[in-house]
Amino acid sequence: MFANLLSALTGHRHEETLPEPDAAMALGALLVRVAKSNLSYRVEEIRRIDRLLAKIHDLSPVDAAKMRATCEKLEKRAPPTEIFAELIREGVDFDDRLQALEAMWQVVLADGKQSPEQTEIVTRAQHALGLSEADNLTARTRAKQAR
């Protein structure tokens, strides 16, 4: 409480300590980045991210929302998309990387409006994940079917 009061009076902000990004947090932050890349972070995208995090990590809806909130904070301080994607590539096998790419496409398609900015981030992530164009097509097709 005193730290908050002191920071308010002095103008110094206390930065919240965030966890080091592992593959799970990196994926969450990438999903947030994809959703925000067109400068519109819609409720449909937030719900989709929560559902994906719950499914992928076997979390309750509340825990998935908490994880997304942490991922939103991580995304603000995040390194370039390629570095996050490399964390995922180094931490998971091919099938999980393909699932991560599919999750990104699900976020892109969540609000029914695909922007060039979102496509660009997914494409950069796809390359950093070490996935081919054929893998990208597979992930996108699965994402469309999951809607």
Automatic annotation (TrEMBL):
InterPro entries: DjlA_N, TerB-like
Domain Co-chaperone DjlA N-terminal: 25-138
Positions of transmembrane segments: none
Protein name, as recorded: Co-chaperone DjlA N-terminal domain-containing protein
Organism this protein belongs to: Thalassovita mangrovi
Lineage per the UniProt record: Bacteria, Pseudomonadati, Pseudomonadota, Alphaproteobacteria, Rhodobacterales
